[in-house]
Structures are given as C-alpha cells and as structure tokens.
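Hi R.,

Here's the chain you asked about this morning:
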Amino acid sequence: MCKLLLLASADHCFAFKMNVSPWPSGKKLVHLDLKGAPPKMSYMQKLIPLIARLGADGLLLEYEDTFPYEGDVKVLQATDHPPYSREEIKSIQDVAKSNGLEIIPLVQTFGHLEFVLKHREFWELRELPCVLGTLNPHRDHSVKLVLQLVRQVLELHPDIRFLHIGADEVYFLGQGEESKHWLSMPGHDIHQLFLGHVTKVVKSIRETWPHLNLIMWDDMLRSMSCSTLKDSGLVDLVQPMLWDYSPSLDVAGTVHLLETYRSAGLSKVWAASSFKGSTDVSTCVTSTQRHVDNHLQWLQVAAALPSGIEMQGIAITGWQRYDHLSVLCELLPVAIPSLASCLETLCQGSFSKESQTKVTETLGISTVEVKDMVSNPCAASCSAYPGQRLAKLVVELSELLQSEELRFLDTNMFVKGWFTPYHRQRKIVNPLMAQQIQHQATALLTAVELKVEAVRQEMVQFFHESTAQEWIAQHVSAVLEPIRRLLEDIQVAIQEVLPPSFNLPSPGQQG
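And here is the predicted structure, written out as tokens:
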C-alpha cells in the first residue's frame, strides 16, 4: 500500500504518494487547445521548446477554427483573430521536430462540432436544430464534411503517424427526427447509431491513409457491452483514449474499464489527464495541487494495468474552453507551473520535495502554486519562464476582483445607508453622501482599471488583442459594471437635487 505524505511548500501542502512507479513506456503528450486564446507564433517558438524541456514527448494539437481551412470550408476560419497561416502550421511542426516532439492533430468528427455547425451553411447537418455540437450521422454530407476537414489537416501534416478523431460527448444523439426513425427499426439501438458513423469515418480515413494510427475519446464507449464493442468494426482500427481529469479519479473503476476494452479486442489504449481547464468553466487561476493529484491517480492506474493492455501514452490536456462557445478558462502562462509539475510527477512517480525544487528552478519561480507567486516572489536573478509576469498579474487581478472591496454595493457604508435601491429608483440622494460614494467608487475603479491595463499590455505579448479584449470582457467587466452603473445613477440623482451650476467641494475640502 502506498503511503500518503504531506509536504509543505510555501503556504500550501502537497500530497504525494511514495513507491509508485513512473509512467510506463509510452508518449507523454501535451494538449494545446487552440480554439481559445491561440498563442502568437512568437510565443509558440518559446513555448514548444519549454514543453520539451519539461519532459514531454509530443503535442496533441486541437486547431479547430485556428486552422487555415480552404475552399468550401474556409468559412470555418476564425474571424475575431487571424488563423494560423499554412507557413505557421509548418513552422510549428519544424519547431516541434527540432525539439524531439511528435505532433498528433485532433480533428473532431462527431461531437463538439460547434465551430462548424454554428455556420448557416451547415445548419442542416445538426442532429437537432438547437444543438450546435452534434453532427447528424444520417446525412451523406456529414461524412463528406468531416473527411474534408481531416484531409486538409493531414495535407499540412504529411509526416504524422497518429490522428485523433475526437468523437467525445456526442450529446443528444438519437433525438433528431431521422435518428428517431432509424432507432424505431428492429435491432437498432443508440450504440449502433454512434458506432455506425465512427466506423464509417475511420474506415474512410484508413482507406486513404492506411499508415495512420487513429485515436478517439472513449466516453461514448464506456457504457457499451464487450460484445457490442467486439462487433463494432473498430477493433484494430482505433485506439481509445480514456479521459478523467478528477483529482479523485476512480482507480479500480478505470482498471475495470480497461479490462472491458481488452476483452473486446481494444488492447492499445491511451490515457488523458489534465493540467488546466477542467476545474470550473470560468476558472482563471490554476491549482497545481488539483492536477498533480489527478496524475498521481493515473499513476496508480498505470501500476495496475491488466495483462494484455498496451498503454500507448498519456495526453495531458489543457482546455482553453469547455466548448467553442464557452468562456475562456486559465490562460497558458498561468498554467505552466501546473504543467511542469504534472510532467515531473509522471516522470518520477511522485511529487516530492526534490521534484518541486526541480520545477521551480527550471521555470525560475519561487513556488509551484501560481497563486502563491505573488506572496512569494522569486529573486531578481531568477530567469522566469515566458509568460511568468502575465501569470503574476492575472493572479493579482483575480484576487482584487474577488476582494471585499469589489463588493462595494454590499459593503460600503455610504451606499448601504444613503443610496440603496430605494434611493436609486426615486433619485433621492444627500449630495454630501453622494460625493463620498463617488470619491470612493472612482478611486476603486481607477485602481482596478490600472491593473487591468497592465494585464492587457502583457497579454498582447503572447496573444492577439481580441483575446485580451475577450478575457477582460468575460472576467473583469461583469465585476466592475455594477459600480459603473452606481456612479451613473448617482450622477443623475445629484442633478435632481442641485442647481446645474453648483460644484460640490472635494471630500478633502470639507470642514
């Protein structure tokens, strides 16, 4: 039995298990989710070598709308920021290759096709009119469409050995009218409906690219019986990637699932963990502890692999959005300490004091918890990783946005006493009290806006201006808007009770 020890690091306790072997042979892939906050190429040129130094063997690249699609699907290119050019896609591969990293593209072929099905040209291919993420498997053009996406991606990645076809979270499959009709026929069920589309896609890819090894997410397979999986036509054609991002991953249940896959003939499998983007849909600051714990659980799974299972590797996912239309989660620079810690955990089989020291020295930081970098600043001589200053500023701003001060409407004495919703509605205000509110609220907004501008200026060093604007609008504006509206309302109320030409003295001039 493994011992559970607690190790103090700065103000944080780290849990790590002893006597667990390092990750078995197989690739350690870092997933770059480019459908949100795609890094500028100048950052990619620094990020990819850093990922290699941290111990990764490859990159799982999910381009989505950042890929330079052409022809009938050119409309899929992002419009709020420029997609990567064909030359930049080649440059990414060159940098990866020169740093010993293998690239595996991920092209969604069934679920999570929001970036495709949101466009009017493809509305008819939705399973349900109101569901943007699920492809209708009954339309001939559905398979043609995903194969066109695959073909364009593969043409720009001529040297790859693996392709990930997604196929996770195919929500609402079976609820469209065509699916209901198909399911009403004897011998048809929802599993066969899913497998029929995936098998058609997989066989079509293999006919043109027989050398490719195909990977797919496993969640839609989990509830299938061994016999259903055996008869699916997927055996020897795909390799399931089991994903679980929980710090309390069910080790026994995962091993049992692996046994089911092995019995069905799906013996070559992958794992998928997480270093960011899986805590909460709008999380801004990454918890290293949470993600290290997830990897410690996966190490226990690896230590208990059933006989006959061939573990091909693990993808350490870094989701930038939960789906194409959701809010941005943690930016990459904020999560680099977590990524480094997770890779070190896999390499060592634990996250000991020595492991933490290695991570902090490699990244030039004082602590592996990004939230503690503010209170534990690194010495000026440290050579910090690219983006460390942005990470620090994001932490500072996040703490400020969650502070008691920003609950101004609930905590300020003058607001609670002299400008309640009752006063605001009726435009009743004591001018001198209003002046106090204006002074304090304006000072607070100014302090926050200065921090926001510092974050924006640093953010555009790594991401496009549109990303900075989106992040600020999503994570900052909603917090500040109530205070701005309060100031607008109080100015209107003052105009109701003072002559137009009268100017109130500043608070410091009052006797």
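One quick note: Residues 1-13 have pLDDT under 50 and may be disordered.

Cheers,
M.
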